[in-house]
Design brief:
Distance between the termini: 14 Å
Number of helices: 14
Shape: globular
Order of helices and strands: HHHHHHHHHHHHHH
Number of strands: 0
Helix content: over 70%
Radius of gyration: 19 Å
Low-confidence stretches: none
Amino acid sequence: MKKGYGYIAVAVIMFTSFEVVLKFIAGQINPVQLTLCRFAIGFIFLLPVALHNLKKREKQLDRKTMAYFALLGLIGIALCMPILQMAVSYTNSSVAAVMFSCNPVFVTFLAFFLLKEPIKPRHIAALALEILGTVVIISPWNTKLNMTGVALALLSTLLFSLYGVMGKRKVAEFGGAVVTCFSFFFGSLIVLALILLSHIPVAAQMFQSIGLNSFANIPVLAGYTWENLPYVLFVSVGVAGIGFCAYFLAMEYQPASVVSLVYFFKPALSPLLAWWVHGEEIAPNMLVGVILIVVGSLCSIIPGILEAKREKI
């Protein structure tokens, strides 16, 4: 049980630091190109661990399992990440990031229907506080939101929630490292195919005509330098490799609805880290939202720890 919360802590640290580190290389690398790099390097980093786990568990990957991992890669990486990038093209990145962090709302109910995980009163209370905190941070009453961007952000959130819940179905059998590694592999292959597709003139012109220039003629290697390489490696090995692996390893010990709370800590801690590293100002509504989100997350996690202790007695 404690190990599960340890993995959650690692995932929180990695995911929270993503946008803050990404700011150091903003504009230097195409976002879809970076998505390919992140998950391809994450796959290479996790492959030895995944192969070791397969050998330890005496498991082999048959065609049906590989097809399942390919579906995970399609949903959680090849579709989710580009759609999130499209959302950022239509609305503020802060709005898209905070809305993406609402995936525990979807996970809680998807886990109920797909994994038969119970929805307890503390889960409802936590979700209510966290949704309220997210609304306060976004402040829709003060901002003219682009509904296309909001819809795309919600779609990417739903896709990532489905990725997490479907991934847990295989975690118990193969382990978190195996699920993460091979979903990264297939997701990277599909993203590479999309990048190659973007060089077809008709496809490139279509994306440019709707204002998505970053999706046209996407480079594969251009933009990387010795100066930005440490940051690229961090978001690839650290955030994608270690962060996602810890996320799925935590599911071996905790319900998907609890593990997904990682994404409610993210909008609470990211502003603090951005303030510390980049000197970004924390607005009053951001501070109030952070407090609500943290309290909501604690409403779910602390009773879970207490229940586990009582079960051991």
